[in-house]
Each structure stands twice: as C-alpha cells, then as structure tokens.
Amino acid sequence: MNIKPIKTEADYRKALERLEEIFDSRMGTPESDEADILGLLVDEYEKKHYHIDAPDPIEAIKIRMEELKLKQVDLADVIGGKNRVSEVLNRKRKLTLEMIRNLTRRLNLSPGLLIRDYKLTG
Known about the structure:
By secondary structure, this protein is mostly helical.
C-alpha cells in the first residue's frame, strides 16, 4: 500500500482508478484498508474541487419523498392538506415555519436546509 495525498487532478484520477480496482476487496485485507483510506482522500479532494450546492428546500423534499417512496398525499397531514402540498411542491406557496418543523420530523431533513430561500413560480 503506497498512499499519498491527492494534490492534482492526475493524482485524483490515479486514486479513482486504484479505488475501482480494489473496491470489492474482502474485509480485513490490506486492499480493503487501502480502499477505506483512498475513499476518504478522494472524498476530501472532491469536497474541495467539485463542490455541489445543497438542493433548494423543494428539491430536497422531493428527493427525500422519492427515497422514502412517498406520494404527495402522504404529506397532507404534515403540510396541511392535499391542495397545500401541491401548491408547495409546485412552488406556488412558500413553506411556513410550522410546515418546516413538521417536515423536519417526518422526512428527517435538516431545518437549515428547509429554511433556505427559493423562488416561487407564480
């Protein structure tokens, strides 16, 4: 195992190639340990050089709904009725503080993510 910091794009590509080679290594092997360490190094490099902004509140809700296999009707009690859910998810109405509190509990999302500003469509 010859691991070094990832400083350049070339280092990054080499690390990804090596990680792909050893990714499915059996637990407890030197290759498995190497994969764990390379994964951390790659993650840090990506955070610095390939920053991805968090989704806006509505996209975050939709993503979480998909992950949990929820439909709009499943949030009616949380947001305040089927029509209100539709208005919020179609960006016709802003989230209220009460909705944010309820969605935080129901969807296990960060309140900080849900209070971010976003544009309405009409």
